[in-house]
Amino acid sequence: MSEQNVIVQQVGNRLDIILNRPDRKNAITQQLAVELRDAFLNVPTDVGCILLSGSGGAFCSGIDLKVAGADLKNEPLTAWVEVHAAIYQCRVPIVVALERYAINAGAALALAANVVVAGETSFLQVGEIAMGVAAPMCQAWLHLKHSPAVADRVVLVGDRIVGASLTELGLVSEIVADSDVAQRARDVADHIASHPQRGRDGISRTWDALRGRIDDPDEWFASLIRKF
């Protein structure tokens, strides 16, 4: 039996979704994307919060170029778009434990979360501009959640954004000691999961009313890939 690229385990009302390719710094392949998409599409009804993390003490280094190829314009990871549509449609709050780094496609996963806990030396980087390509999934979440000024700074500069700068830009919720990221993220996820479901649902509906909803997330995210 092949090893799982994504580990899914429920702990009380918390659902842990763990990227599980530590030998490749949890880099994303087509198979990992399929498993991740399915995890978000099949969240149990009694789950109050999702904790998304990476195995081996790091979050995600982006798309595995060794497998996918360097030319991202071909977008070989067709399931990757479906991952983001599934996250968008997920009605359960998502907490990310950002250990060490979230790079490019990994940054997109962090940007998609409701709450991000990062370490003092953790960094987030949307560096596709230096590769000569757009960053459609990162840009999608920056557009949905952040101001144009923050979005432009992140994608046009393309540098590593570290520690306190992450909170100053509003990209993460809090910074803790590197050794405390995993535990703090679990604590936050457990706390969110402990709230009454009607409260979480009411907050989601209110955000929908204020922000609007995308009618067809699958097509919306896919259209961003087709534009470049």
Automatic annotation (TrEMBL):
Pfam families: ECH_1 (PF00378). InterPro entries: ClpP/crotonase-like_dom_sf, Enoyl-CoA_hydra/iso. SUPFAM superfamilies: ClpP/crotonase (SSF52096). Belongs to the enoyl-CoA hydratase/isomerase family. This is Unannotated protein.
